[in-house]
Design a protein that fits this description.
Length: 253
């Protein structure tokens, strides 16, 4: 039976009972066993992601040089298998993108221009923002079913109103910002945490005394799957920073 986008009390109760049989302390089914994070100059303005996907693993040197030329911090460059990713202020990422085709012939280039979902500390009772951030990047696919893709986007469009406990969980975990980008079926997730903090330690706080987040996690599982190359049962994978750097103060615009 197809699940409605309406979140009735009975549906939530049944869903929560099913999900908590195998309790997950992770939003969007994040794998807690692996932490990959990089410190970077961070702006609270519009951020973008550009991704290069090759048939085989790609050398990062050309991307690093190009990012340096356009003042995208090298700590904003990540990789997973044959995927190279740069994350930074939107105008700079767009400038970098236009030169990637010739630098990586035979590879595909995708721009994630703007997030369709954004959480920040303005949604918290304590709105204080850490001066230094570490950014954690992950990626996964949406399932091929277009109806389910639309449902996934609709859930996120109404999450703050219908599932406010999720944002409360992010606040409790000291998440500074959380962005979700989409290009086709592929998702990019950027979690910003205070510099020096551990996502492995912070993430369980999203569900502490907050079972509604477990319900959300379980609900989202049906909409996501791993990229080609992931292990069986693996959904979200961490992109590892190519270069680790010390954190730089957050730049407010």
């Amino acid at each position: 039976m197809e699940q409605s986008l309406q979140s009735s009390a009975q549906f939530s109760a049944n869903l929560g009972q099913q999900c908590r049989l195998s309790r997950r302390a992770a939003w969007l089914l994040l794998p807690l066993g692996l932490l990959a994070q990089a410190s970077a100059a961070q702006s609270v303005g519009l951020m973008s992601v550009v991704e290069i996907t090759g048939k085989t693993p790609l050398a990062a040197a050309n991307l690093e040089k190009l990012c340096q030329q356009y003042q995208v911090p090298s700590a904003g460059i990540y990789r997973w298998q044959n995927h190279l990713v740069a994350y930074g202020p939107a105008p700079k990422i767009k400038a970098v993108r236009q030169y990637l085709g010739p630098l990586y012939p035979g590879s595909s280039v995708q721009l994630y221009a703007a997030p369709f979902y954004k959480f920040d500390r303005q949604r918290c009772a304590d709105q204080a923002v850490a001066k230094q951030w570490d950014n954690v990047l992950l990626t996964a696919n949406l399932v091929p079913d277009e109806r389910k893709q639309r449902e996934y986007l609709q859930y996120h469009a109404t999450q703050f109103e219908k599932w406010p406990e999720v944002a409360t969980g992010f606040c409790n975990a000291s998440f500074q910002q959380l962005l979700v980008f989409r290009q086709g079926r592929q998702l990019m997730l950027v979690i910003s945490i205070p510099h020096g903090a551990s996502l492995d330690e912070l993430n369980p706080k999203t569900t502490l005394h907050n079972p509604r987040v477990d319900d959300w996690n379980c609900l989202m599982k049906q909409y996501q799957q791993g990229l080609p190359g992931t292990k069986p049962g693996e959904t979200w994978v961490f992109l590892k920073p190519v270069v680790a750097q010390k954190a730089i103060l957050v730049k407010k615009q």
